[in-house]
Each structure stands twice: as structure tokens, then as C-alpha cells.
TrEMBL record:
Biased composition, class Basic and acidic residues, residue ranges: 16-27, 165-174, 222-264, 272-292
Region called Disordered, residue ranges: 1-27, 160-342
Protein name: Uncharacterized protein
Originating organism: Fusarium sarcochroum
Compositional bias per record (Polar residues), positions renumbered to this chain: 1-10
Length: 342
């Protein structure tokens, strides 16, 4: 089978799958392989413009090696998925070699399991957009860092930004210390890398046509097991979210209770102050009325005293009328007689 990118130029990668293990008499399988290979080549054309040249060449050699070419109905049966997952989970795999993800995203762009894997790669690269496909391969402008991430050599998720907290991710499992293997290992190692929870027996020999097809098409042996594990993982995440939500709601309730008590206390203080001012105002009003009565009483006394004072005759009035004390009249008479004698 030959597969070539229709949009490729003269320097584009051309795949020729002439080895016997990649040949099959099944027309449907050949068609699926042709479509899958074309998708991978198109994805490579998209992503290589965003990659460092060394990563581009390494991806080119990886694709030319053809060990990723296999007719699989589900991604969980594909060698690339097994190489990524190893003994981890779709949401927390053990191998972060990027070309494996490129193949899976190209062939199954909308598959839920592939999106879980891509989300894990997004955490690893500290770029959530990677789950959207090869067109979102991060442009880092840092060759050494890009190649380390590209080859899966960074040991801890979130090491770049420190934002990813594995203690809060129930699916997180620390990967084996040391760089992840770049290319597919020898086929003899496949038995060690098969998911220990997955009952399908597929050692990667594409030449075993009948057994390979039976395994790929059996949902209970492939996607079914993965879905069960993913569902359990989602249950754990949901339980964790419920616990956090309950904790947040409890903190929110306590804050609201504190605010209610705070404003209630302020209201009571102002009400008490208002009552005190009201009582003081009433007392002041009573005092004002009492003092006004006292002032009125003294005003009446003053008027009465003035009336009595006005009723007493003055000295000038006594002289004109001849009235007055007898002694004073005698003195006056003597004075007049003396004047007349003189």
C-alpha cells in the first residue's frame, strides 16, 4: 500500500508500506489504513510548520519507520496508545513522546479517549490548547525546552509553571524517573507494556491478520475496558468536586453568617444610640419646659414689684403738695420766717 500526502511538495514525506506484515486481503482494512495514513500525513504537514527543525526531522523518521501503521477500529487497540499509556491511564499516561499523540489525534480527532490523552499532554506542556489537535502544537521559541518536552523527558507535570497540582488530580500517577523512550521498542517488549487491567491480548504483530482483526473489533476487550476505567476516574473527580463544593458552600455560609451578625450588631448599636438620643431629647425638652415656667414665674414677680414701686410717692411730689413729715415742714416754716424778718 502506498500513501502520499496530496498537498505535499517535492520534499514531503512519502510512505510506502511494502512489508508483508502491513499487507492484508481485506478491502475494508486497506481502505481504513489508506484513510488513516492520509490523515497522519496531513497532520504532519500542519504541525511541522510550528516545530523546531530537529523535532520535524525526528517526526519524519518516526513516521517513515511505519511501526505506527496498523488497522485499528479503536484507539485503545493502537500501538501508539499502548506506548503512551503503558501502565498509567488515558488521563495520566507514562510516556509523553509527542509523535505518538500526533498519530492518535490525526486518526481519531474527536475520540473521547484520545482527547483525555491529549489533555494529559496539555498539562505536561502547560498548554491546554493541545487537546484541540496538531494545529495547536505549542510554539516555544526555546529549542532545548521544546525538544525535552517533545521527547517526554520532563519528569513532572506542571514543572514549567508550577500551576498543576498532582495532589488535586485523582488520575495523577508519577511517571518513571528518567526520559521516556523516543521510538517504539522491540516488539518483544510489547507484552510488558500491555495494560494490566485490559484483557485483550495483542502483541503488535500485524501479520496475525485474523487475531488482530478480532481483537480490534471486540469492544468488550478494548474500548469497553478503557471506558470503565475512565468512568471510575470521572466518578473520583466528581466525588472530589462534590467534596470541594460542600467545603466552599460551608465557608460561604460561615462568611454570610458572620456578615449577618456584624450588620445586626451595628443596627442594634445605632438603635440603642437612637433611643438614648431620643430619651435625652425628651429630658432636654422637659427641662426646657420647667425652666420656661420658672422664668415666667420670675417675670410675674418682677412685674408685681414694679407695680408696687410705682405706687410710692416721690420727694418732689410731697413738697408741692405740702405733705411730708412734720419735722421737715417745721424746718421749712422757720426758714421762711427768718427770711421775712430780715
Amino acid at each position: 500500500m502506498d500513501s502520499e500526502d496530496p498537498s505535499a511538495n517535492s520534499g514531503a514525506l512519502v510512505l510506502k508500506t511494502e512489508e508483508p506484515e502491513h499487507q492484508t486481503e481485506d478491502v475494508g482494512a486497506r481502505n481504513r489504513l489508506t484513510v488513516a495514513t492520509g490523515r497522519v500525513m496531513n497532520a504532519f504537514q500542519i504541525v511541522k510548520g510550528r516545530m523546531d527543525p530537529e523535532a520535524v526531522e525526528e517526526t519524519r523518521q518516526y513516521l517513515a519507520d511505519l511501526k505506527w501503521v496498523k488497522d485499528c477500529v479503536n484507539p485503545s487497540s493502537h500501538p501508539c496508545y499502548k506506548k503512551i499509556k503503558r501502565r498509567g491511564t488515558a488521563g495520566s499516561p507514562e510516556n509523553y513522546y509527542y509523535p505518538h499523540l500526533l498519530v492518535l489525534q490525526a486518526i481519531w480527532p474527536e475520540n473521547r479517549t484520545v482527547r483525555l490523552v491529549a489533555t494529559a499532554f496539555g498539562k505536561y506542556w502547560d498548554n491546554a490548547d493541545m487537546k484541540n489537535g496538531p494545529a495547536f502544537y505549542p510554539i516555544l521559541n526555546d529549542k532545548d525546552r521544546e525538544l525535552s518536552l517533545f521527547r517526554g523527558e520532563v519528569l513532572d507535570i506542571g514543572i514549567q509553571s508550577g500551576e498543576y497540582d498532582p495532589d488535586r488530580d485523582p488520575d495523577y500517577r508519577p511517571r518513571n524517573k528518567g526520559p521516556a523512550p523516543a521510538y517504539f521498542d522491540d516488539e518483544s517488549e510489547d507484552d510488558e507494556e500491555v495494560d494490566i487491567d485490559q484483557e485483550e491480548e495483542e502483541d503488535g504483530d500485524a501479520g496475525d491478520g485474523d487475531e488482530g482483526e478480532a481483537t480490534d473489533n471486540d469492544p468488550m476487550d478494548s474500548e469497553g475496558k478503557i471506558n470503565d476505567k475512565d468512568e471510575n476516574a470521572f466518578d473520583r473527580v466528581a466525588e472530589d468536586l462534590r467534596a470541594r463544593l460542600q467545603s466552599v458552600e460551608e465557608k460561604k455560609r460561615k462568611m454570610q453568617e458572620w456578615k449577618s451578625d456584624y450588620w445586626k450588631t451595628k443596627s442594634q448599636n445605632y438603635e440603642k444610640s437612637s433611643e438614648e438620643h431620643k430619651k435625652k431629647s425628651e429630658d432636654d425638652k422637659a427641662k426646657a419646659e420647667r425652666y420656661a415656667k420658672i422664668a415666667s414665674e420670675y417675670a410675674k414677680r418682677r412685674d408685681k414689684t414694679s407695680a408696687v414701686s410705682n405706687s410710692i410717692p416721690s420727694a418732689s411730689v410731697d413738697e408741692e403738695s405740702g405733705d411730708g413729715p412734720p419735722a421737715k415742714r417745721a424746718r421749712n416754716d422757720e426758714s421762711v420766717a427768718t427770711e421775712e424778718t430780715a
